[in-house]
Structure formats: structure tokens, C-alpha cells
Amino acid sequence: MNLSALVYAVGAFVCLASADFFMKLSAGRISSSLNTLIYAMTAVVPAAIWVAWERLSNTSQVLTREGVLTSMAVGVSFSLVVVFFSLTFANGASLSVASPTIRLIGLVLASALGILVLGEQFSWRYALGLLLTFVGVYFIITR
């Protein structure tokens, strides 16, 4: 992974952790449905700023039918993540158990799709990583 990708990855995990933290703080202070609606409306702002910035700087923007459909699938998926996280926290789950457990199992499912659907590489180190992930989830849940 190059330095730019690493910087973006750090930004992604910091924002992901912040999102989980703020969602836990909002539990019990707003209904899950309103939380999801406000999330969705607010999520438009950074995206609109980014698109506008690219337009103003004459950056090429690609638009295909397949890209639109898969982007819509991303939007639905992330919105449902927010729905299910909101409901999980609203029903009393702790941040320190629910968030890592859900995230780790989600990562395993995503990586399995990469291997099974996209033909990405499988190795013994990957298998060991999966085993350690499930051991970690067990330790988190049973602490």
C-alpha cells in the first residue's frame, strides 16, 4: 500500500470510528428512523462539495449506467448499516462489543466476496487471518 492509500485508510477508519461513537451517543436521544434520515441528508453535503470541487477544477468525472447502479447499491447498503447499528444501540448493545463484532464479521463477508466473486487471491496467511479474526470476535463477545 502506498503512502497516499495509507493516509486515506487512516481517514476512513477515524471517520468510521467517529460514526459508530456518535451513533451510540445518539441512541435513546432520537428515534432510529430519524437518525437514519438525518444521516442520509447530512451525507449529501460532503459528496456535493467534492463533486463541485472536481467540477471547478476541471477534473474528469466518469458516469456509466453500471456505476450509477452500483453507487445506488452502496447508498442503500450504508443506509441499512445505519438502520441496523441504530437499532442495535437503541436496544442496549455496548459500543465496545457491538461495533467491532459487526465490523469484523462484515469485513470477513466482504473479503469472502472478493475471493469468491471477484477472484481475488486466497492464501494460508489469509486463512490464518480469518481464524484470528474469529478468535478475536469470540474474545470480544465473551470478555
Describe the structure.
With about 140 residues, this protein is an all-alpha fold. It has one domain (about 5-140). Helices cover about 80% and strands about 0% of the residues. The chain is built from five helices and no strands. The protein has helices at about 5-25, 30-55, 65-90, 95-115, 125-140. The protein is globular, with a radius of gyration of 18 Å. The model has no long low-confidence stretch (mean pLDDT about 95).
Share in helix: over 70%
Radius of gyration: 18 Å
Flag low-confidence runs: none
Number of helices: 5
How far the N terminus sits from the C terminus, by CA atoms, comes to 33 Å
Count of individual beta strands: 0
Q: How does the overall form come out from the CA principal axes?
A: globular
Fill in the keyword field for this structure:
mainly alpha, 143 residues, globular, 81% helix
Summed up, what is this model?
The chain has helices spanning 3-26, 32-56, 65-90, 95-116, 124-142. With 143 residues, it is mostly helical. It starts with a helix and ends with a helix.
Q: What layout of secondary structure does this protein have?
A:
Layout (H helix, E strand, L loop, with lengths): L2 H24 L5 H25 L8 H26 L4 H22 L7 H19 L1
